[in-house]
């Protein structure tokens, strides 16, 4: 088993920051209808604009190892950082996962997310890997709207 497979399994078996917590500013629920994966995600942000801080991401994820591991990686990589950094990380993951294998990912930007680079070669699995990232994007947008 290679290192990337081990990272995915580790995040699947011991997901980082799993479980829904309070306080939170927004909650979203996303479903992948092609396979049944689901995630409910909460985000807590302090401050406003790009310098606001993602204080907490909590989630309940049900689905395949790729979907659960991806939610764990998301929570690990963006919690504690700025909203600007979170947006850059989301875009880097989206770019890598939709590249059909041409973008290997930048470990400096997405950390353990590089373990999911191989998913880009399997279009049916890309939605599994992106599910929590899209839920986070929606929750972040809702949280920002609530602060205005």
Automatic annotation (TrEMBL):
<feature type="domain" description="NIF system FeS cluster assembly NifU N-terminal">
    <location>
        <begin position="4"/>
        <end position="128"/>
    </location>
</feature>
<dbReference type="GO" id="GO:0016226">
    <property type="term" value="P:iron-sulfur cluster assembly"/>
</dbReference>
<protein>
    <submittedName>
        <fullName>Nitrogen fixation NifU-like protein</fullName>
    </submittedName>
</protein>
<dbReference type="GO" id="GO:0005506">
    <property type="term" value="F:iron ion binding"/>
</dbReference>
<dbReference type="Pfam" id="PF01592">
    <property type="entry name" value="NifU_N"/>
</dbReference>
<dbReference type="InterPro" id="IPR002871">
    <property type="entry name" value="NIF_FeS_clus_asmbl_NifU_N"/>
</dbReference>
<dbReference type="GO" id="GO:0051536">
    <property type="term" value="F:iron-sulfur cluster binding"/>
</dbReference>
